[in-house]
Amino acid sequence: MTIIQTTLAKDIEIENLDIRYDKSVKRVLANTPLLAPITKYTVRELKNYSIPMVEKCIDANSIQVSEVFVEPGLTNRKIVNDELESKIPGEGRAIFDIRFTITLPDGSKTKIIINIEAQQKSNPGYSLLNRGIFYAARLISAQLSVEFTNNGSDKEQYDNIKKVYSIWICMDCPEDKKDSIINYSFEPHIIYQGNDKLKLYKNCDLMNITFIHLSGKPDQSHHQLISMLDTLLAKWRT
C-alpha cells in the first residue's frame, strides 16, 4: 500500500488538486492504482488476484459514455467521469462519480461494470442503500441495446446482462457502521418447495451495492483498504 500512497501523493502534487473539493476527490479516486485495491477488496470475483493483476483488469477502452485520456506529464492513466450521465426518457438524471468496466483474466472474458461513489455524509437524510439500489438499477437498465437485447429473435437476450457493482465510500459514519465493508445483493429464499428436484436460478447476484464505511481515523483500522482510504481522504472530511 505504501507504493500506491506514494504514487497518488505525486499525482495530487502534479495536478495541484485540493482534495477538500468534490471534483478533486473524484480525480484522485480515478487513479487506476487506487481503483485496483478498491475493487480487489469489494468485488468478489477479484479477491484472489493481486493488485497489479486487478489493475490490468481495468478496461479503460470499454468505458461507456465517458472520457478516457492520458494526462500529459502524469505517471498514471486516468479514468475521469466528472459528469457521467445516464439518461432515460421520463425519468430524472443520475450522475455517477466514477464508472468503468473490468474484464476478468480467467479466459472467459467476463465483463463487470463498476460504479464508485464518494459519500461525505453517510446520513444524508434518506436511505443511502435505496440510493445505491437506484444507481445499480440504472447500471443494469443502461445495458439494454448495448450489452443485451429484449428482441425475441435473440436467443440470449437477458442472459447477456453484465454484473454491476455500485461501491460507496462512506465518511462520517455512525458508530455502528464504522470500520466495515458490507455488500448487498440478491439471494434466493425458498418460500415453498413441493418438488425435491427444484433447481434455483444461478447468477442471481447481478446487482451488488457495497458500502465501505471508513473508521474516521487514519491508521485505526486493521483493514488495508479502509486504512488507506482513511489516510487519503482525511482532508476531505475537514
Helix content range: 25-40%
Shape: globular
Overall SS class: alpha+beta
Note the run of SSEs as H and E: HHHHEEEEEEEHEEEH
Output the radius of gyration. Answer: 19 Å
* Count of discrete domains: 1
> How would you characterize the largest beta sheet?
6 strands, mixed
User: Beta-strand level of the residues, as a percent range?
Assistant: 15-25%
First-residue to last-residue Cα separation: 24 Å
Oligomeric state as shown: single chain
> Average pLDDT across residues?
78
Adjacency order of strands in the biggest sheet: 1-6-7-8-10-9
Query: Could you tell me the number of beta strands?
Result: 10
User: Which regions contain 5 or more consecutive residues with pLDDT less than 50?
Assistant: 63-77
Q: Number of helix segments?
A: 6
Task: List the defining traits of the structure above.
alpha+beta; globular; 6 helices; two-stranded antiparallel ribbon; 238 residues; 10 strands; 26% helix; 6-stranded mixed sheet
Walk me through what this model shows.
The chain has helices at residues 2-15, 22-29, 32-40, 51-57, 128-141, 224-232, and strands at residues 58-59, 67-69, 78-80, 84-87, 93-96, 98-103, 111-119, 163-170, 180-185, 207-213. It is globular and about 55 Å long. The two termini are 24 Å apart. It is an alpha+beta fold and 238 residues long. The longest helix is centred in the first third of the chain and has 14 residues, at 2-15. It has one domain.
